[in-house]
Amino acid sequence: AASRRAKMAAAEKRVVGAAPAGYTALAVKFGERQRSSHCLLVKEHQVREGAGATHPPRRTLFVLNVPPYCSPDSLSRLFARCGCVQSVDICEKPGEKKEKLTSKFFNCKTVTGFQVAYVVFRKPAGVQAAKALSQEGPLLISTESHPVKTGISKWIASYAASVVDQEELKAEVDAYMQDYDKKIAEEEAKAAKEEGVPDEEGWVKVTRKGRKPGLPRTEAANLRVLEREKRKRARKELLNFYAWQHRETKREHIAQLRKKFEEDKQRIALMRAQRKFRPY
């Protein structure tokens, strides 16, 4: 057992030492019971002065190879021993801009692979202290005081998070639609104001408007459209549903063709009789 632990420790040292140029490898483990370790590749984030206020130079640690089960809270706790952590941003790719959350319900994104992270310290000394963690043993992502949910507990938490408050959802959707209608009205008013007015080069923008206005975006109009589509779909689905209905339809069609043929024959005979010469 002692020799196996020594071999595992030597393997960890080899892995930690095999970092790409410019990076420092930090060994981490999911939990205490896990034997194998995982490597986070870290380095000081280099940007031009004034290029990015979100990730300032000399205070930002760039982290590669972040596993999907490692959350911003986990990274903040891992590097808290190095100094006060101001913020942690996790992205799919380096340089990806963080999107502003505009919805509480429609911004859920499933993490499917390894990511990158930007850990911002309050002082530059935190970055150097984080790089010095390579000399210590593997850091634990999930601890007894701060466990990471996995398995059934994670599924239960995901299911609980998927059940939303209908009143809050309705309020958010209504607010979004009001903003959208306001935006469309402003665009239409702007287009009407600029209609027929030449631009700087003398060109006049011409837009085509239909004769019939669009349907109003009201609940009653939407219900009427849905009801009409439902009736149309029901007629299509129930027409010739059974084989005997199909045979009856063909028989009626043939009978109508024969009736029309006899009527045409009578009309032609009448026309011929009217054209016949009768001197008396």
From TrEMBL:
Annotated coiled-coil segments of the chain: 166-197, 247-274
Keywords: Coiled coil
Keyword Coiled coil: yes
A GO MF term: RNA binding
Any single biological process term in GO: rRNA processing
Gene Ontology CC annotations of this record: CURI complex; UTP-C complex
Pfam families registered for this protein in UniProt: RRM_1, RRP7
CDD domains hit by this protein: RRM_Rrp7A, RRP7_Rrp7A
Domain RRM: 61-97
Domain Ribosomal RNA-processing protein 7 C-terminal: 162-280
Record family assignment: Belongs to the RRP7 family.
The protein's name in its UniProt record: RRP7A protein
The species this protein was found in: Spheniscus mendiculus (Galapagos penguin)
